[in-house]
Amino acid sequence: MFFLGQIDVMPNVVHVVKNEEMLSALERHAHCDWGELQIEERDKNAKALVENDYLLSMFHTARPITFWIITNRYRSVTTILLSDPCKLHE
């Protein structure tokens, strides 16, 4: 488990991702469950945990909409954002 810091949710995310889905994904991210990431990205996260680099996770909502969670290298900010900003208009 690692510190998430301040949680920033991009404005378009709140329109398409349910709070429960965000909270569940944040908990998984904090416990090093990287969601749907490919093995190469999972390996980068394993290295980033040791070297204090950024951490990335990818999740899908029930709709399905893909969203990302990124924690900066200082563990001071974690951001939730959509993979496709156009989802705001769905």
Query: Whole-Å distance between the termini?
Result: 34 Å
How do the strands line up in the largest sheet?
A: 1-4-3-2
Helix content: 25-40%
The sequence of SSEs as H and E is EHHHEEE
Largest pleated sheet: 4 strands, mixed
Strand residue content: 15-25%
The count of helical stretches stands at 3
Per DSSP E runs of 2 or more residues, the count of β-strands stands at 4
Based on secondary structure, the structural category is alpha+beta
The structural domain count equals: 1
| Shape, principal axes of CA atoms | globular
Radius of gyration: 13 Å
Low-confidence stretches: none
Mean pLDDT value? 93
Task: Report on this structure.
This protein has 90 residues and is α+β, with helices and mostly antiparallel strands. The chain is 32% helix and 24% strand. Strands 1-4-3-2 form a 4-stranded mixed sheet. A hairpin with a 5-residue loop joins strand 2 (55-60) and strand 3.
In short:
With 90 residues, the protein is an alpha+beta fold. Helices cover 32% and strands 24% of the residues. The chain has one domain.
SSE order and pairing:
Elements: E1 6-9, H1 13-16, H2 19-30, H3 39-51, E2 55-60, E3 66-71, E4 77-82
Which features does this protein show?
four-stranded mixed sheet; 90 residues; 3 helices; alpha+beta; single chain
